[in-house]
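chain and backbone:
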Amino acid sequence: MTRPDAIVVSGDLVEGLLLGSTEYPAALREQYQIAEKLLISLVDEFLRGDRSRVVIVPGNHDVDWNGVRQSFQTEEYVPENLRGFVSDPESNYRWSWADQQVLRISNPGQYESRFEYFNEMYNRFYQDVRLAHPVDPGRPWNLFSLDSGNIIVAAFNSCVVNDCFSYLGHIRSRDIADCHLAMRPLARPGCLPVAVWHHGVGGPPWASDYLDPSTVKLMIDKGFRLALHGHRHDSSVSPLDLLVSTKESLAVVGAGSLCAGEKALPHGVNHRYNVIQIDRSKNTGWVHVREMNQPGIWGPGQLAETGGKAYVDFTWTASSLEMPDQGRSGGYSTALVDEVEGMIASGRSEEAIDVLLSDTIIADAYKRRLLGKALEISEKWSDLKSLLCPPQNDEELAMFYMASERSGDMAGVLEVLESSEASGEFNAQLMAELKQRFRVRNRLGG
């Protein structure tokens, strides 16, 4: 039997407990003890006990509903644009359909503890494990190095705003940027950057439990070329492309569920897991689906997009995690970028701004991203607004609007929104939300 090189667990380690469960918290802690025992047995059986080759991210079932409910209080004020108000990922407000009430996070500390039981298990599992980058379950991302450093895995928490009232999948752009800065010192020529999170990408109308595709396009821009997720309880392989100066692509692979209850499985889908083979030299991989066709008996599964085959191949373009421009001045340029990114990561954003404004070696596109990050950290909102006008992608559009609001200068914002919308190059949902925020702000006299 060929042993795997690594195991990826894309969330939902437990079923969780419904609100008001009389078995809370003992039953929840017991669920994590069972999950931990299963993980350890898999590591011992397939990875010779090496836990450094296991990547774990939380899922929505890992959110402690009973604990987080105590962090909310009823809010008497009901905003006019209720749907837009509570659907903002950064909002502290929620809508309870059961009670027909608006609620507000009144205890942020209690809210942030909703992964307490997951974190306890996570810390026990990785205790005393030697890792290339120390892990912290409280951080929205963690890094793992696989295949002797040839594969770098960024494990994102897509449940950063997920609770008993919000099922949204969300990864903040600033967290992707921070993770990217931490990844670069680990990068080596030809390495494959992989992203892992829980929620699927895109979803049906009126649903919210998925990740916005524009977030994944930002990951492509940051150099990720393979993405793994769970949540949908079905196996899938989808390519996503980003058109910049060249076409860059990333393969998004969804996993089935190993242990979900029968009611949680899609119609006609059994328990599944994926086996992924990778050939980095050819930027090619294969997804093999394994399925429990009979109780306790596993065999080839079926992928709908392949007409029922048990496997599908996928490709990706060469990663841009390593900076281009490796010609005559490439060495100096790359070293300077590393220096500037180090300044930003260590909080010396003002110093980074001075270097970026005076340097002409760093490629313009990357200089723009670094400068935007430094200006945001320094809260130089007017300068950030000027830098991002006109915005070039969804992230810049959102940042441009935020910078305009925080600088108190909304001049020209409507014109930018309208021209961006007319171009057809920006996410429609993001555009609609920003225009709605602009209209509400004008109505309130802001």
User: Anything to note?
Assistant: Residues 26-46 form the longest helix (21 residues). The radius of gyration is 23 Å. The chain is about 35% helix and 20% strand. The CA atoms of residues 289 and 338 lie 40 Å apart.
